[in-house]
Amino acid sequence: MGLRGRVALFVVTAVIGLVAVLSLHTRASQLALPTAVQPASQRKQQPKSAPTSGSLSGSSQAVVLLARSAVGASEQYGYGVLSVRVTVRGNQIQDVTVTRLQTAEQYSQQLAAQVIPMLHSEVLSAQSARINGISGASYTSQAYALSVQSALDKLHVA
Amino acid sequence: MTAGVSPSRTLGHVETVMGTAVSFVLYPGALSDTAVHSALARACRTLHEADQTFSTWKPQSPVSRLRRGEATIEELPTEVATVLGLCEHVKSASGGWFDPWAMPGGVDPTGLVKGWAAERALAELAQAGVRAAMVNAAGDLGVHGRPAPEEPWRVGIRHPWRVDALACVIEADAAVATSGAYERGEHLIDPNSGRPLTRAASATVTGPSLAIADALATALVVAGADEIGFVTALAGYDAYVISPDGSELASNGIRFVPSA
C-alpha cells in the first residue's frame, strides 16, 4: 500500500489545492446568496509544469520509463459527474486532468475547468498549502479521489 | 510528487467505506513504514467494522436487526450500546434537536456513527505513535497532533451554495464536523415533525470528540442559528452557522484564519 498511499496523498492534496485555489474570495459579514453569481476570481495563471523528468533523466538512470495514462471511472457527485485522466511515469504521477465535468451550475464548471489543470504545479509545493482539509465538502473531493484511484488501478499502479 | 523524498514525510490514503470515501493524511514522524501501514490498516478495519455493525442499508447488520425488533441491545455488539449512549447524551444536550429515536423507520444513529467511526480510526493512528494525522470522513474531520510545531491544521469550511468554494478557513486541534442543507437525502430530519427540514444553510461544530461534533452539527443545521447555545453550553465545543439569508454566526472559540 506504500505507493498507493503516496498516490492517494497526491489526490488528497490535489483536492485541497483545488479548493484553496477556488476560494480566493474573502469571508465577508454576509455570504453571497444563491442567486448572486460571482465572477471568477482574478488569479495569476501559473504555467503548467512540464513533466518533471529530471529525476529520471540523470546519466546514472539506465531504465527509461514511458509515460502512461488512463481515464478513471466517471464518478457521480452531488452536483454532477466528474472523471479524470491520470498520467504516470513509473510509479510517479505526472499529471491529473479532468476529462469530464458536468455540474448543474455552469459557473462552477467553468471555474473548475480553469483551475483543475493547474493542480499539479500547485500540489508540488504542498508544503505551502494553505489548508489541510475541507469540512462539509464530500461530493466533489470523493468523486475526484475515486476517479483518480480507478485510473491508477487501470495503470496497475498499486 | 516524487515518492518518499519530501522533507516532512507524509502519507495519504483513501478508503471507500460506509457508502463514502474516508481520506487520511499522516505525518508518521519517526514511525517505520511497516508500523505506519499496520496502523493505517487497523484504522481502516475499524471503519469497516463500524459499517458492518451500524449500516441501516445492510439488512443483517446489528442495527438493522435492532430496528426491526429482532434483537435487543444486550444481544448486540457492545459498540451498539456505546453509540446509543452517546446518542442519548447528544439528544439531551441538544434539547432534542438530535434525536435518532425520532427518525423514520426506527432508531437510526447514522448522524453520529460516521464521526464516531472516524474518531476511532484516528485513535488507532495516535496510539500507534503517528506524529500527526487527519482523518476526513466525507467532510467530518478529526486531527491529531500538528503538521509542524508552529503550524496548526487549517480546515476549510465548504461554502453552502458554491460547490468548489470555501466559506472560510478555521484552525483545528481536534474535531470539525459540518452539516449542510445541501446534503440531500441524508439525516436532516426535524425531530418535531419527523420530516426533512433545515433552518440553517450550514452548521459547523468543533470540539474534542468527532462523534459528538458530528451529531451536534446535524442537530444545529436542523435547529438553526437561534439554537447555537446548546453547542456552546458544552465545554470545549464551538459552532459556526451560516443562515439561509447568508448571515454568519460563530461562537468565540472558532479560530478563523484570515484570508491571505
How would you portray this structure in words?
The complex is a heterodimer of chains A (158) and B (260). In chain A, helix 1 (2-22) packs antiparallel against helix 4. Chain A has 158 residues and is of the alpha+beta class. Chain A is built from four helices and five strands. Helix content of chain A is 34%, strand content 21%. The model of chain A is unreliable at 1-61 and 113-129 (pLDDT under 50). The longest helix of chain A is centred in the N-terminal third of the chain and has 21 residues, at 2-22. Chain A has one domain (2-23, 66-154). Chain B contains six helices and twelve strands. Strand 5 (133-135) of chain A pairs parallel with strand 5 (153-158) of chain B.
Low-confidence runs of at least 5 consecutive residues of chain B: 1-7
CATH architecture of chain B: Roll
Question: Unreliable segments of chain A (pLDDT under 50, ≥5 consecutive)?
Answer: 1-61, 113-129
Nearest-angstrom radius of gyration of chain A? 17 Å
Determine the mean pLDDT of chain B.
89
**Biggest sheet of chain B: strands, sense, closure?**
8 strands, antiparallel
- Oligomer state of the chains in this structure: heterodimer
Spatial separation of the terminal alpha carbons of chain A: 7 Å
State the share of residues found in helices of chain B, binned by percent: 25-40%
Taking all Cα atoms into account, the compactness measure Rg of chain B is 18 Å
Proportion of β residues of chain B? Answer: 15-25%
SSE run of chain A: HEEEEHHEH
β-strand number of chain A? 5
**What sequence of helices (H) and strands (E) makes up the elements of chain B?**
EEHHHHEEEEEEEEHHEE
Largest sheet of chain A: 4 strands, antiparallel
Largest interface in this structure: A-B, 62 and 66 residues
**Gross morphology of chain B:** globular
